[in-house]
Amino acid sequence: MQFIQHNLVAFLTVFIARMVIAPFDYTDLSIGNYLWLPIGASILSYLLFGFKTFFGVFLGFALATIILKGSFDAVSVYSWMGRLITSLAPIVAIVMMRAFHLSDFFDSGKINFAHVVFLVILTSLISTLTKFFIYPINEAVISNPVAFVQSYLLGDIIGGIVFIYVAIKIFTPLLVKNKLI
Fold it and tell me: Which pLDDT belongs to residue 140?
């Protein structure tokens, strides 16, 4: 039952974060959204509930993508790959940081925000560089590689930090109750 609850929370968080920023999307693939909140939603889901929430995170991205594109058939395989990369990048970053004993993200049971900021930056780097090498396979060409890396990297970092900071501030009573801050 807890598995379903955690995945439902992850799904709703990612889905809502993605839908909220939809008006800021660009039509040009070379320019990413400068406030990519869903990456913060996925990172926070993994930190609070573990990697088992991957399904909720990915399904949140999937449903939002289908709605924003208009139908399942309108979503290209490259768009699916982008959503998969964005869902997996935080997991890869967390595993890397744990493998090098950089952080467990909690000190004495409380969230260490400085370590989470580093996690957001590492996740953003992994996500952006992976997409940079995957998207050119697409029929759409990245017209400006510098703008691509800049906008995707900055959007992930800014969106991730903003989402996590705001979520911690809004849900402080719940997090205090669970001894996470």
Answer: 59
